[in-house]
Design a protein that fits this description.
Elements: E1 11-14, H1 23-30, E2 33-36, H2 46-58, H3 70-81, H4 93-98
Parallel strand pairs: 1-2
């Protein structure tokens, strides 16, 4: 599942949760270095913390996740994954991973000048 991403993945920074006990196999699959953030040093995992903030816009703290429909979760996931990211040169994660520029509805601000319909970032 992770092998297609080993070309673009150089490092992964994890927290110290038990869910990362298989980090060695992840590192091998991705052919990358794994680092662990120090406890209570959230700035060492900046992208993760930023993404958590985006999730909180859809699902505020205290909200019971069991009350959220799969459709709402899928919608939030899609909207987060089409959001342009500065770290990706204002491409969205979907565009970055697929290598294709997708169309958007709405105002993209300055990022719209960096995109053209049909433009592929890998040519």
């Amino acid at each position: 599942m992770l092998r297609p991403y080993n070309i673009i993945c150089k490092t992964v920074t994890l927290d110290n949760g038990g869910e990362f006990s298989c980090h060695a196999s992840t590192a091998q699959s991705l052919s990358c270095q794994i680092y662990f953030a120090k406890p209570y040093h959230s700035w060492q995992r900046g992208l993760n913390e930023d993404t958590n903030g985006l999730l909180r816009r859809f699902f505020p703290k205290g909200m019971k996740i069991g009350d959220v429909s799969k459709n709402k979760i899928d919608e939030a996931q899609f909207l987060i994954n089409i959001r342009p990211r500065k770290a990706l040169n204002y491409f969205s994660p979907i565009e970055f991973l697929s290598g294709k520029c997708i169309g958007y509805c709405g105002n993209l601000g300055d990022a719209s000048r960096k995109r053209e319909k049909g433009y592929s970032m890998f040519y």
